[in-house]
Specification:
By secondary structure, this protein is of the alpha/beta class. 37% of the residues lie in helices and 20% in strands. The model is unreliable at 121-127 and 203-222 (pLDDT under 50).
């Protein structure tokens, strides 16, 4: 998560940038949030809410508040405190008040002051000085490069959290990367206190803090390619939904116990063998019609129940049995982080959206409803319903008809290079590969865009 920790505005500070302009600039550059920092002043919550409404800011973008206090040693940024501080206090007093309120303190060095001015030429004195603060703003628009290098070296030696903020009338030049999803000022402060943050740089401002030639250091926001499309089609499991399941002997044995309570006597091993053999038979039969067939699991359960009970007990009982089996096999299911917020924002941006999933309708539709995902999609195509699976061209043709767009106006987002990316590109869709270490990660195909960290919020940068 990338946040500019230090933005002044013309609302409460002597700056020319308007709050709405600063926010839209940050959104356009792909940031996840900003902190509005004013001198000795906190933005009222009602004004922040009003600002969000006036600017039409998406729910996924975070706006935080903080304040800057001037001290003899330099400026201090306080985040996570409700009290407005004055300049008539010492650094130590400010630090103690911030700590009491559960906030964090960030030291902001001044460009006009040298390292020797701070420490009197004695670096050992820096230990006590830095100990006053929870972090130091290593990169901003006002910091002298030599001073930057000195502070960075010292901060790293002492394991002091280093952050970045623009600290100017131009927003989103310097930012901080957070390892956690930050929802409010308290969480932001805790992340800094736990050192789960580091400074970053955007817009090609490749500053080498050690001087000399620019080096490829790890402080740039991931660059993504903006795609101009009108429709988005998602894979489900492994892309939006994190699913872990297993179909071992243990699960079939439990299923056999359940069937016995329904007066169907069968052992776990017999049920497992019949299930697998029947799936294979149906798959082979379907291969005569399509290249990548899909078996309908309801038919498998209905056939198994008829075989072991001696009579057909109907589709509803087969559906009930399938859901029991699914419950037994699932170890974990849930949305990946930020999925719902990302989908809500893309929907607000007027994209037509759908799902293509190699999945069983008997299992998947109830899970989609439980996860409250159906509200975001114009259509859902499941392989068991259409008799073929990705990367079969037939399933992508069905999607094209459903989304009612030219292939080049549609992007497919998935976690499997073969089924998702190859299949989508073969049909003419643009492609975004989400690397979640679930789907096939080795296949001779090159996605249009790869999201290597699996963070779905990057899609908001790709599809403006």
């Amino acid at each position: 998560m990338f946040i500019d920790l230090h933005i002044y505005t013309d609302r409460y500070s002597e700056m020319r940038v308007m709050p709405i302009g600063a926010i839209h600039n940050a959104i356009n550059k792909g940031l996840d949030g900003i902190v509005l920092i004013e001198k000795n002043r906190l933005w009222p919550d009602e004004e922040l809410a009003s600002l969000r409404r006036e600017a039409g800011i998406p729910d996924s973008f975070r706006i935080f508040k903080g304040q800057q206090i001037e001290c003899p040693e330099g400026d201090i940024v306080a985040i996570g405190c409700n009290e407005e501080f004055t300049n008539q206090v010492t650094s130590l007093e400010i630090k103690q008040k911030i700590k009491t309120q559960g906030g964090c303190s960030i030291f902001v060095p001044q460009k006009t002051i040298t390292y020797e001015d701070y420490f009197g030429g004695k670096k050992k004195d820096a230990t006590n000085f830095f100990g006053l603060f929870d972090a130091v703003e290593i990169c901003n628009s006002k910091l002298d490069k030599k001073l930057l290098r000195e502070f960075l070296d010292f901060a790293r030696k002492k394991s002091i959290c280093c952050v970045g903020g623009s600290a100017s009338s131009q927003s989103s030049l310097y930012v901080t990367k957070f390892l956690d999803d930050i929802k409010d000022e308290k969480e932001l402060a805790r992340a800094i206190l736990k050192k789960r943050a580091n400074f970053a740089c955007v817009d090609g401002h490749d500053i080498d803090p050690r001087g000399g030639k620019t080096t490829n250091i790890q402080w740039n926001v991931p660059k993504v390619s903006v795609m101009k499309v009108k429709g988005l089609i998602f894979d489900l499991y492994g892309t939006l939904v994190d699913l872990k399941s297993t179909e071992s002997y243990e699960e079939f044995n439990k299923m056999a116990v359940w069937l016995s309570q329904e007066n169907i006597q069968v052992s776990g091993s017999m049920l497992m063998n019949y299930y697998r053999e029947r799936c294979f038979e149906l798959y082979q039969s379907a291969q005569k019609r399509v290249k990548f067939p899909e078996v309908d699991i309801l038919q498998v359960f209905r056939d198994a129940i008829g075989f072991f009970s001696g009579k057909d007990r109907g589709e509803e009982f087969a559906r009930k049995s399938a859901m029991v089996f699914r419950t037994l096999t699932i170890k974990n299911i849930g949305l990946y982080p930020n999925t719902r917020a990302m989908l809500r924002e893309l929907k607000r941006r007027k994209y037509r959206m759908g799902i293509i999933s190699n999945a069983q309708a008997a299992f998947t539709m109830p899970e989609i409803e439980d996860l409250k995902l159906e509200q975001f999609f114009d259509f859902i195509i499941l392989s068991s319903d259409v008799g073929c699976s990705k990367p079969d061209s037939s399933i992508y043709k069905i999607a094209s008809r459903q989304i009612e767009l030219e292939s080049g106006q549609t992007a497919f987002i998935g976690d499997d290079l073969h089924g998702d990316i190859y299949g989508a590109q073969n049909h003419g869709f643009k492609s975004v590969y989400i690397k979640t270490n679930v789907g096939t990660s080795k296949y001779p195909v090159t996605p249009d865009v790869t999201i290597a960290d699996g963070d779905l919020r990057n899609l908001l940068r790709i599809f403006p």
